[in-house]
Automatic annotation (TrEMBL):
It comes from Donghicola mangrovi. This is Gfo/Idh/MocA family oxidoreductase. Gene3D superfamilies: Dihydrodipicolinate Reductase, domain 2, NAD(P)-binding Rossmann-like Domain. Residues 6-115 form the Gfo/Idh/MocA-like oxidoreductase N-terminal domain. The lineage of its organism: Bacteria, Pseudomonadati, Pseudomonadota, Alphaproteobacteria, Rhodobacterales. Pfam families: GFO_IDH_MocA.
Length: 309
């Protein structure tokens, strides 16, 4: 067996601790060797204040996983690519579509791997749903993505700032599943953005989309849902209803449950990152980010009550 690829993680926050660290520990093809985070480090590993310090001090680290907020991620990724390191991006891959396209061009020119991850695409039911829909006659799709921002994002101010996406931060997970399971592209025709009077990003949003052949797709995103949380995609076909529930962890054909599996999304992402590096390939699909960008372009802005934690 070849040596594992040495990797450093940048931005030791919520998702890095909850998902990246345990998943890396379970990925034999990658070895975590260092951390860069302004306010955090890990015992037993070299820790640096920022990525520039890390890149200068660790020439043997081959790959960088960026777990920072999307704003500012371009400069970090660009520095890593310039230093000829492979780069894995948390979702959303950047704060704008064009900046990630620029990174893809830079990675190609540098001969390194760029992996723009969409963890929800690794949910247990997504590939099966995609296969079921390839030859189906789809008549409509509805997305219901409603959660409690106070529970999931306490103290995260970046998420409310320009480039933070607001409720599209979770909503883009639904759009990443949508763009994977639909047999043809979709585009936005209308949107509404409910923006708290004291914030820059929406707390609620709706989107109307349509596929190339005219299939209507609607989405409702809401960060004000307390109690049970809702992460469902309902696909109506001429043969019945296919439903992905709980963020794609469960799949139903009518009332019959086809899939119920434990969450291995980030383990699958890291295994794929190592495979892409070994194959000398990149994977950068910006279609979910493009849909969100277009919702901001076309969206009617509605001011709503100020948000306080
Ligand atoms: P977070 O808890 O705020 O952690 C991000 C970390 O990045 C911070 O702890 C911070 O560490 C570092 N950082 C660098 N520049 C920063 C800046 N300008 N503002 C704030 N932090 C900065 O955020 P997160 O929830 O882990 O999310 C990070 C990324 O993962 C986002 O793109 C998010 O969409 C994605 N994600 C999050 C979740 C989730 O459930 N939380 C799930 C899936 C994906 P230092 O202060 O030590 O530098």
């Amino acid at each position: 067996m070849t040596d594992p690829i040495s990797l450093a993680l940048v931005g030791l926050g919520t998702i890095a601790r909850n998902q990246h660290l345990p998943s890396l520990a379970d990925t034999p093809t990658l070895a975590l060797k260092a951390i860069a985070s302004r306010n955090a480090g890990l015992d037993g590993l070299p820790s640096y204040h920022d990525i520039d310090a890390l890149l200068g001090a660790e020439p043997d680290i081959q790959a960088i996983s960026l777990c920072t907020p999307p704003q500012g991620r371009f400069n970090q990724a660009a520095a890593a690519i310039r230093a000829r390191r492979h780069v894995m991006l948390e979702k959303p891959p950047g704060a704008s579509v064009a900046e990630v396209q620029a990174l893809a061009d830079m990675a190609r020119a540098a001969g390194v791997t760029l992996f723009a991850t969409w963890h929800s695409r690794e949910a247990a039911s997504v590939e099966q749903a995609r296969e079921m829909l390839q030859d189906a006659t789809i008549t409509s799709v509805q997305i219901h993505w409603k959660e409690d921002v106070r529970h999931w994002h306490p103290g995260q101010e970046w998420i409310w700032q320009p480039g933070g996406l607001g409720v599209f931060d979770p909503g883009i997970n639904a759009l990443s599943i949508l763009t994977r399971i639909m047999p043809e592209p979709v585009h936005v025709t209308a949107a509404s953005l409910e923006v708290p009077a004291n914030k820059q990003a929406p707390i609620g949003a709706t989107m109307q989309m349509v596929s190339a052949s005219g299939i209507p797709v609607s989405a409702v995103f809401d960060w004000r849902q307390t109690g049970p949380q809702t992460w469902d995609i309902i696909v109506e076909t001429s043969a019945g209803t296919i439903t992905l529930r709980n963020g794609g962890a469960q799949l139903f054909d009518g009332d019959t449950q086809l899939v119920q599996a434990e969450d291995t999304e980030y383990r699958r992402l890291y295994a794929r990152f190592a495979e892409l590096i070994a194959a000398g390939q990149s994977d950068v699909d910006l279609s979910p980010l493009q849909l969100v960008a277009d919702a901001f372009l076309l969206g009617e802005r509605i001011e709503v009550a100020p948000f306080h934690e």
